[in-house]
UniProtKB/TrEMBL annotation:
Source domain of life: Eukaryota
Protein name according to UniProt: 3-keto-steroid reductase
GO molecular function ontology, one term from the record: 3-beta-hydroxysteroid 3-dehydrogenase (NADP+) activity
InterPro entries, A to Z: 3KSR/17beta-HSD, NAD(P)-bd_dom_sf, SDR_fam
Recorded GO CC terms: endoplasmic reticulum membrane
GO biological process terms on file: sterol metabolic process
């Protein structure tokens, strides 16, 4: 019998999130016994509707809905979750994918140095984008933390009861290979003082995913973390402008073809492969790898595949402390907004 799985994808109107929606709809057309209903969780109604229309044009008859949410606002996430609970009695998948990489300016000196001494770093890292320090939301949270981490955490905790209703439900975090342990400071867990709040947010993503997995396993809920490789999406292109953005994309293709750099996935479709893989593989093939990161890679000819990488220096105590802080913060917001989950 065919089951329709409900998949919420944050930031699904562009980039990797859009690629995940395409892949799940493509999967639905090819597997009559496993259908997906896609819920595009986006902050902008016009962009969300454009994405919905484009998906339905590519996959006529596909099941695609929209729910509006600004993940940087806890109030908004609470409202979104109320709406989701009204519409659905269960959920199979939450893709915690939306993300920002704020940039104050481009450091041309870094670009010049990397061009000469380490062109591969230039094509894989974001060192040249200088991130602003100390930006907070109207709710006094670190902005990147709020959007990339806490908004998703609130969503998961609010929707936990719907995830419990399905067997092998999955939480899938789009992380990054730049999420290394030195970027996270437990004392400044909202990364307000950090000059790399993006990298800190992705490190937190990895810690939270592993911790949530062990907490939620008893309910048959699994949490995984992924890396999309290096894809030419808006998250960096918006800071570079049209000309540099396309120059970057050509550089990615060249690096993959001529240097064999397997992390250069370049397109949404290839970049989203690891998320799709984790969403659709039998859980028995995945569940022992929850302490690893599922990464999208490509060969020289642009064929995507998935491999796992270690999450360096995972520290159980550090993860526990972080998740406890998030729970405490969530409780404060529940009181503030009189939100009964
Ligand atoms: N591209 C890469 O090479 C790469 C590498 C490593 C990790 N990642 C991760 O992949 C994820 C997706 O990014 P992308 O590369 O696909 O970039 P993207 O095209 O810019 O997608 C980001 C998505 O997040 C949404 N978003 C941002 N802030 C939001 C908020 N406050 N509330 C709700 N939605 C919000 C954006 O919506 P709007 O369109 O409204 O702005 C957009 O849909 C991110 O978590 C990113 O860190 C990407």
């Amino acid at each position: 019998m065919s089951t329709v799985k409900i998949a919420i994808i944050t930031g699904a109107n562009s980039g990797i999130g859009y690629g995940v929606a395409q892949r799940l709809l493509d999967h639905s057309t090819k597997n009559s016994n496993e259908q997906f209903k896609i819920v595009l969780a986006c902050r902008n109604k016009t962009r969300a509707t454009d994405a919905q229309n484009a998906l339905l044009k590519e996959f006529p008859g596909g099941l695609v809905e929209i729910v509006l949410v600004d993940l940087s606002s806890v109030k908004c996430v609470f409202e979104c979750c109320k709406e989701v609970k009204k519409r659905f009695s269960r959920i199979d998948l939450i893709f915690c994918n939306a993300g920002i990489l704020p940039c104050s300016y481009i450091d041309w000196w870094v670009i010049a140095k990397q061009l000469v001494f380490s062109p591969t770093a230039l094509l894989s890292r974001t060192d040249a984008l200088v991130q602003p320090v100390g930006i907070t939301t109207t709710e006094d949270l670190g902005e990147t933390f709020a959007c990339n981490v806490f908004g998703h955490y609130v969503m998961i905790r609010e929707l936990e009861n719907l995830l419990i209703k399905t067997k092998d439900s999955r939480i899938i975090w789009t992380s990054s290979c730049t999420a290394t342990k030195e970027h996270f400071n437990s004392e400044d867990y909202q990364a307000i003082k950090s000059n790399v709040p993006y990298e800190a947010s992705k490190r937190m993503t990895d810690l939270i995913s592993i911790k949530l997995n062990s907490r939620l396993n008893k309910h048959d809920i699994y949490s995984f973390t992924t890396h999309p490789g290096v894809a030419a999406t808006n998250i960096v292109r918006d800071h570079l402008g049209w000309v540099m953005g396309y120059g970057m994309q050509i550089g990615f293709y060249a690096a993959r073809t001529f240097l064999g750099m397997r992390n250069q996935t370049v397109t949404n479709w290839n970049g989203s492969y690891s998320n799709y893989h984790v969403a659709t593989q039998p859980i028995d093939l995945l569940k022992n790898d929850y302490v690893k990161k599922f990464c999208s890679y490509c060969n020289r000819f642009g064929e995507a595949y998935v491999d796992t990488d270690d999450i360096e220096g995972y520290n159980e105590v550090e993860a526990e402390v972080l998740v406890n802080k998030l729970d405490k913060l969530l409780d404060e917001f529940r009181v503030k907004y009189n939100n009964k989950s």
